[in-house]
Amino acid sequence: MVSHAHHGTTSSALTRLNVKAARMVGVPPQSYAHLLGLASEHLDDDACRTPAASTIRVLELTTGQAHWTEASLLMAQQSDIGTLGVWDYLITSAATPLEGIRDASAYFSTVADTLTDGLRITEDGDRITLSHLNESDLSHPAACAVRSYALGVYRRRLGEAARRELQPVQVTLAAETPRRHDALTRMYGTRSIEFEAQVSSITFLASDLSAPNPHAQPGLSAVLRTHADQTLASAIPLRDWLDLFRAALVSVQDETAPTLAEVARRMTVSTRTLQRRLDEHGTTWSAEVEAVRRDHITHLLHDTDLTFDTVATRSGYADARALRRAVHRWYGTTPGTLRRAGRLRTG
């Protein structure tokens, strides 16, 4: 079941896993606590769907502390059955591992953002290949971690369904070749990994995935599919697409002057698609950047004692004169007057 209503969001369960991994590698909570959807009342509520931009940002912070190969292994190790909710049990409770992964593919949206990620199953004679579809840049560490983790969790869940470790026939990764990949060897159970592939995939013998699940319960899969339908029906996407874009734009603004390419990469879409979607929503890249910059400058003037030159630099302006012109254009006043007005209102 593909749920277009949840595009641009991921399950809070997946976000919790990302946050747990970030903490384990030493990312300070204050680095991500302000992101949309990461307030405890949202993060701890299984009905909430986190903006995918927030989930990706947490993973970017994680891969800034640990190599993407290590980050993906850590996430796979922390993914005990139940971590990802009903999606896990769809795999482990079916009559065979193959039937379980088919259900997991059909209900992929209970976990991930199907606008950017997907699970494809290809049956070819005595082999079955699971491909994780994600078109983000091969050089983007967070995207590499997503793809490698996905293959790892597929293997883990299928092994848990079969009640034995499954040995893949082949593994391919749409990622740049790392200097070392010991972590991936541990996660996949093989050193035979092809990097810089077109698609990330893991292939098993059909006989391994078609063998009866030793602890399957007749009728349970139907109950779980109903539960998955209900989970999607009652889910609360926290933002629409435009708000998701703005969340991604703000997260880039926090680090540097935002560029179209960087925001597109964070949202895992092409720059052309991003511009088209902005046009569909009646706005433009320049207008959105201007609004975010205005809000950012207003915050810095109201809530900090930074000099005007520093505020200008942090906001992408050349100097205080350019800042003064922008503030006058927005508010018809000067940065000094705007700062005093903010202090008076706060007082």
Tell me what you see in this structure.
With 347 residues, the chain is α/β, with parallel strands linked by helices. It contains 17 helices and 8 strands. The strands form 2 sheets. It has a 5-stranded mixed β-sheet. The chain is elongated. The termini are far apart. The mean pLDDT is 92.
Produce the secondary structure layout.
Layout: E1 9-11, H1 12-24, H2 40-43, E2 48-51, H3 52-65, H4 68-77, H5 86-92, H6 97-106, E3 118-124, E4 127-133, H7 141-162, E5 170-172, H8 182-188, E6 193-194, E7 200-205, H9 206-210, H10 220-234, E8 236-237, H11 241-253, H12 260-266, H13 271-280, H14 285-303, H15 308-314, H16 320-331, H17 335-346
Parallel strand pairs: 2-8, 5-6
Antiparallel strand pairs: 1-2, 3-4, 4-7, 5-7
Helix pairs in contact: 1-3, 3-7, 3-11, 4-7, 4-8, 5-6, 5-10, 6-7, 11-14, 14-17
Give a brief outline of the structure.
The protein is of the alpha/beta class. The chain has helices at 12-24, 40-43, 52-65, 68-77, 86-92, 97-106, 141-162, 182-188, 206-210, 220-234, 241-253, 260-266, 271-280, 285-303, 308-314, 320-331, 335-346; strands at residues 9-11, 48-51, 118-124, 127-133, 170-172, 193-194, 200-205, 236-237.
